[in-house]
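User: ok so my PI wants both of these folded by tonight, can you help

Assistant: No problem, let's get them done. Here's the first:
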Amino acid sequence: MKMELIVFYVAKQPYAISFSEIEEIQTAKKGTPLPFADEWHEGLITIRGSLYPLVNLRKLLGVSFDGPQESDKMILLSRARVALLVDELDNTAIIDESELRENPEVNSRDILPRAFELSDGRIVPIVNVETLLAYTRTSYV
């Protein structure tokens, strides 16, 4: 069975997420900070009258603690009103499930359990949205 993914970058590392999990992609907005929020929580943003928590994947994955950049994008999830802050979008990938393997990065396997290899040899972990949402779920979501 084929999987359609979009590849994006966080701290120069490629990651992927299934197209079926994406509502839309927008240029990033600055969130309104919340007191006592986790460091990876960049605040709340309003999109068409709805509030979305803005999750900074750089901080959540522990790959960089840089703040938002002008070139950042937001991936709005379809299954919950959550926006994922990423550095940039790359391309699409269509892979066969037989190409999937366990993420070699042990520390991030809970949120990124599976991965695939690009033609240039780079490993691309795939975001498990259900686990990500469970991990980031708090009283404001």
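One down. Here's the second:
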Amino acid sequence: MSAKPNKHEGNKTLEDAPGAVWFRAEKTTRTRPHLSHERIIATAVELLDRDGVTKLSMRRLADRLGAHATSLYWHVATKDDVLDLALDAVFAELDIPAAHSASWQDDIETFMTGLRGVLLRHPWAAALANSRPLVGPNALRSSEFAYTALAAGGFHGAYLASAAAAISHYVIGSASSEAVWQQRTDEAATRAAMDAHISAHTDAYPTLAGHFPLLEDDDWDSHFDRGMRLLLAGLASHGDHA
């Protein structure tokens, strides 16, 4: 008989994997620790904004809260729990309209620009959103809005799921890239080096040589807006036929 695997060794089990916090039964006890769930998450977001994901630890979080580790672990079992809850708190900042407009494209544009804004407000959030299931209540609320808008545009079944994925992947991916570049102090120098390297190899990269650096006479907002409109135009050409 083989030994029972330790969930803390090797691959994570579903119980402690990213997203697991949303599927566990809520703890019940007569004596609830004084430390509040809301304070834990607000403090975690503060630390993540300041130091990023790699520097966050349960010990650092407990120290910042001025709390004993046992009080913290009553609320959150793992660091992944903290990350899931903090990321959903970011999605809570997304201003979802109370009602849909007459145009599904306008609704999707509102969703995309709003989501980009909250992700850039917290530079760690976009990259993290690509690493775990987004099934917290606030993330699902935003997805419900986007799915409803796309359904009104004539997307159904697999086409609806693919359209929604294209939208979310564009926003999350572009926000992640922008956040990384914006944190660099040598962005201009790096882009100039990229341009010089490609220009020196025009035989190998003739098309690239005429289009770098991407943001030379542009800015991130315009770059995002142009891509968003190309995506929406493509989706509009398939709506009502999907």
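The longest helix spans residues 157-182. Residues 14-90 form a domain with the Arc Repressor Mutant, subunit A fold (CATH 1.10.10.60). Good luck tonight!
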